[in-house]
Amino acid sequence: MAGTKTVTFDRHQHMLVLANGESRRGVDSYDFLLHRADLQGMRPTELKEALRRVLVDGEVVVNITHDDSVDEEYSVAEPVSFKLSAGQLIVSVGHVNNAIDNDEEAASVFPPLLAPYLKRQRASVRSVEMDLYSYHPLIWNIEISCSLRGRDMADLFQIGEGTLALLRAFESGELTRETALELLRSGNASVLIGQEEGPWLDVKSAHYDLRSPYGKISIAQAVARFANAEHGGIVVVGMRGKRVPGGEIISSTCPVPVDGRTLRSYQTAIEQHLYPPPDYLSIETVPVDGGRLIVLHIPPQPEEHKPFLVHGAIVDGRIEGAFISIVRRRGESSIPITAPAVHATMAAGRALLRRGELPADLEDRP
């Protein structure tokens, strides 16, 4: 029924009562346990009202479990929980990080790191504190204030999960090709929104037109740019970039249609126009916002395989099918490999074939 509340608090039984009539008790008076399935459709304002009835001052904690049954004593709680604190409903994330061991450093690291993602989610970091009961490993409790409008509790839980995924990806101190790939494959692509494109990451909002020579050459060049780069890279089809002062950031996801022929079409275009074939190139689909993205991952390539050549070139918007193009990634843009660099590579190869060593004037060339 439209007027039925999704959750209420029974003061006499001291338990939360769901719309379907099921009840959820807690370990103690101020600690409740919900199943993740309970969050679907549960209105945050109604949970907030129910928790306010538990006590006047202090905090009420709602832990979440993925267990099939909700057992207050034996269920394992997720690192994402909810808290009523000072009358505000908060998303709380418990993050294990031994590299940071004081509040001042944590406050300078975590909020700026999470700001681009949380801003898009209409949320912000409220506080960062060390769990007083943790020693090894250290657990940081990150509290997040979220706009409740137009959301259910499952949405808020997803914000917490996204926060946790981003924190785990940044364990090394910065977003890397490997951690970005992990986020994409785990269904957390939206966490990358607000992050900068760079020397190993490129996004495209729509499919390459693989029915045309232009599209086939374009995808081959996109892969070649990273194959010729030092650290490899990732091309994501289904995310939109936006120019900002100082560069370009990922602004949104825009899932692309995928069918049984999509990945093979990408693979065929690359095979036809890129030589040699890059080692361990992967082309896969990943979930996002109810749709799919195409992710092309190009690991760092052996130097002896470079430069990677594209059969065909795009010159002033025109297709030059008889040309060979050689490109590499530098920063956010692509640049052609220069004639001196190509000549140096060829000359070095010939020298090695003849004498087994490089001449002195070639050893220091780019």
From TrEMBL:
Coiled coil: none annotated. Signal peptide: none annotated. Residues 197-308 form the Schlafen AlbA-2 domain. Gene3D superfamilies: Schlafen, AAA domain. Keywords: ATP-binding, Nucleotide-binding. Pfam families: SLFN_AlbA_2. InterPro entries: Schlafen_AlbA_2_dom (IPR007421), Schlafen_AlbA_2_dom_sf (IPR038461). It comes from the Bacteria. GO terms for molecular function: ATP binding. This is ATP-binding protein.
